[in-house]
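Quick one:
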Amino acid sequence: MAVLATILWAGSGPASAAPQTVTQAPTPAVTVPDFCNPRSRGERVEAPQTGRAVRFLTDDEFPPLHFAGPDGNPTGFAVELARAVCEKLTITCTVQARRFDTLLDALDGRQGDVIAAAIPLTATLREKFLATRPYFRWPARFAARTDKGLPVPSASTLAGRSVGVMGGSAHAAYLKAFFPKAVAKEFLDLAAAEGALKRGEVDYLFADGLNLALYVGGQEAENCCALIGGDYLENRYFGEGIGLITRQEDAALSRALDDALQRVWDDGKYTELYLRFFPVSPF
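Output:
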């Protein structure tokens, strides 16, 4: 999972001049991100009628976004969101799991119609495929031990404090650019960095928010640590996120999927699914 998350760091998109955060909808226990654009709401878009089921492709080895359930069938946030979209469009859909690195080729080869998996949206991807608006993004987050009383990270509060990062990662570059007085301590893998944070060998850890949320909420952390401060979403460093991917000739289907994602958000289904699969929010 850490390897895949490292791949997803290499996003593309316009740079931001300063750290920015996503608009969030608070819930009693978990922060749910809102990636929808209210200005995009308009007349309902219907899915094209083809006389057959719309075939979704996914991978089953990247929880909590997509993984094999107890019955062996694909599930996860991205998969169940796809099913909710199909329900909104009142169309029949199937979901098939394939190896992650074969998904785009399978879509291009017409072995499926839509990809619902953690493939990063990039300019290169859009040269060949269409994608909806992002329904999930990869926030960068800080984590710290809960017993140290450390301040919320900022350019001033991190001055002279040690921060663990993955060497050569987008997070290391971001830390250097926006928190120049922090003392970066680089690690070769995320597990080693998490262990150093747990043992108190670094004050903070700055990494992919999804991986950090899974770590602080898991058994291995033993309640040592928690996410602290806000989320960071600059496209140039952390990518645009993930959306539902279709072939370019299926523009009508892509527009319908985009509209359905908005309606899934509006009726609360997105929040319901998010709370089910993200007990510790990466946002």
